[in-house]
Description:
Layout: H1 20-23, E1 40-42, E2 45-51, E3 57-61, H2 64-68, H3 72-75, H4 81-84, H5 86-98, E4 106-111, E5 120-127, E6 130-137, H6 149-161, H7 166-181, E7 185-191, E8 197-204, E9 215-216, H8 223-229, E10 235-237, E11 244-248, H9 271-280, E12 284-292, E13 295-304, H10 312-358, E14 379-384, E15 387-392, H11 397-407, E16 420-423, H12 426-429, H13 437-440, E17 442-449, E18 454-460, E19 465-470, E20 477-481, E21 484-488, E22 495-500, H14 509-574, H15 581-612, E23 618-621, H16 622-632, E24 643-646, E25 652-655, H17 657-673, E26 681-687, E27 707-712, H18 745-755, E28 760-765, E29 769-775
Parallel strand pairs: 24-26
Antiparallel strand pairs: 1-11, 2-3, 2-6, 3-11, 4-5, 5-6, 7-8, 7-13, 8-9, 10-12, 12-13, 14-15, 14-18, 16-17, 17-18, 19-22, 20-21, 23-25, 26-27, 27-29, 28-29
Amino acid sequence: MNNASPDSASQPWANGLYSILRHGTTLTTCESEPVKTPGCIQAHGVLLVLRLADLTILQGSDNTQQFFGEPLSVLLGQGISRVIGAQRQDYLQNMLQNELLERNVVYAFTLEAREGKAALDVCIHTMDGVALLEFEATGRQAGQTERDYFSLLKSAVGRLQSATGLRGFCERVTTEVRAMGALDRVMVYRFHADQHGEIFAESKRDDLPAWLGLHYPATDIPQPAREIFKKLWVRPLQDAAGSLVELVPLANPDTGKPLDMTHCALRGASVMYTEYLANMGVAATLVMPILVDGELWGLIVGHQYQPTYFGHQMRAACELIAQVVSLQLKSTDALEQQAYRLKVDAVHQQLIAKAAHDGDLMAFFNGEPTLLDAMQADGAALFHMGRWWCVGRTPTDVQLDALAQWLNQRAELDVGARPVYATDSLLQDYPAGADITGVASGVLAVRVSRLRQDLILWFRPETAQTIDWAGDPNDKVVATGVNGARLTPRGSFELFVESVQARALPWSIMEIESALRLRLLVMELVVARTEQLAELNVDLTTSNEELDAFAYVASHDLKEPLRGIHRYAHQMVESTQGLDPENLQRAESLMRLTLRMDSLLDSLLHFSRMGRTRLDFEDVDLNSVVADALEMVGVRPADNRCTITLARPLPMARCNEVHVREIFSNLISNALKYTRQERPHIAIGYLAPGEPGLPLDAPAPSSDQVVYFVRDDGIGIEKRHFEQIFRMFKRLHGRSEYGGGMGAGLSVVKKVVGRHGGIIWLDSTTGSGTTFYFTMPATSPALP
């Protein structure tokens, strides 16, 4: 029946019949006022309520004597012809039968001046079974020409259509409305997501203070008032300090209900609202809503600093311009968003094309463009292949790991088609992120792979937003009057500054949708790349098998003639008759070369068998494996030629014992060989997942695996040789230096590690020593 809040049962109007004059100063909350049924009108006009069936006057404002020369008590129960005449009554009857008047205010006619009474413009609409007639003085002086609002409106709409950008459009709106209404100040008042308002654009007299950029708390426009603005296009208040006139009777005698005045131009204004205007020094207002998809985007607010007549033609022009603005604002905002979207999508397409060409997603971060060139963000990060790839300002890898772990538990990222999380205040959801608000108060995250939980993240920093409030937004003033305590509007509109911490600029719907589209593009690229790699792996497997077979056959078949050459050279040396010293030396050189060639073929055979033989895994004590490897290379506990250190016992591991022993024996042998120390020191150990100690440039997959290492204090290796030392028969020194060798040991080690599903790398400083690290993820170690 009215807009009373749940606590209205305790209010003086508990029977449903509210009157601003009687009850306006008893309000304890803004939300409790029944603004649709105020029971009063502004005193500059007259309201008559008619029964639709016979046009009998059921209710009226108690000021008919002033306008019609007859008291309301005489008019109640009479036909409307007593006020407007029979001819005008017939005209009204015809309008009611042929025009759409339900909740639609229409100008009917002008009632001529008579007996010292001013001419009155009459407007009509119907509501809930009654007709509402509003009578207002025309405001026109004798001989005065009415402004050509059609031409003014036509020109204004043309200029609005030429405005560019959302802010430019809103600025043009204020200029046009101010000119049309000859107003002192016009503002576009925009509502934010939390419903507080901001002066987004302004046109004013030069002598007035600027309010552009000021913010007003949501409570300044209560929810009931907002709901009314969704139902009408213009709300005039000609004299904020003017008197009110009560409706008599307050209840419709036919229904017993209060009158809904939502669409009445004469509807009385709340005491709260008129006091609010008085506090600002405003005498008259003209307010129009801006609606986008039926929701209140904002308001066009006109202020006058003296009481002002707003005629129905001027109001009709403003009503139409409000509708035009609502429609065009939506398209203007859409065009601005579309241009941004096209730019974002174009950059994303470039990134995908570059990634497809380069063969990996690192193209998002290398060269131009990068992931930051699309979205308006300060930093971006991608978790892919077990590590973070970043551009711009982002949290550290450790902070990113913690954030990702938290994000992957969010329900939003488990939504199949839309795994996205967006916030402009991460700290509210993620208290552990207090130390990253400087770079990541705003986060937009999409999941690229559910299996590996790969993520793409965008970051916006904390915007230490300084909001200029028009007075303290928390100021609630309670006054005590004849009717007890009541809430009053803020009396101070001085600048009140509030700093909003740990909050970033919000992500738009368009940005969220673009992030989801990029996710789909990345997934399509990964699928295509996976299929391509699968085909290449099949070809590579076939090639490797053929190469291993060839190496085995070639090395096997070459050994037999090589033995014959060696035997023949040996016989020549043994039988020194007939050989001069020069030829004897040649025969001895031939023997040495055949022995070296035989060793090379043995290494090649061993390497080829490494790829051909099946590996059987079993649970192995790696401490025993290392002990056997030390014995193989000739290191015994009582041996003083070196120092072997195990910081702690090695774990059990499921692996191939023989081949893992070969890993350790080769690495220990190299450590003993490539040193200038009289008593070299070798450390053997492991790092469990998450333990400190790995070098900063360690491969990403090693971060969640057990990492084994062999560290020496030898001659070290220059970084430029890090890759080539793992090539077959590649030596960095002469054959006779550091004990010689074939240069096959590290190639075998790499192949063994690979067959255990792991990787091997090194960290070395020339002259100080080398550490070889390797993993064996297929071994599933059981840590002590």
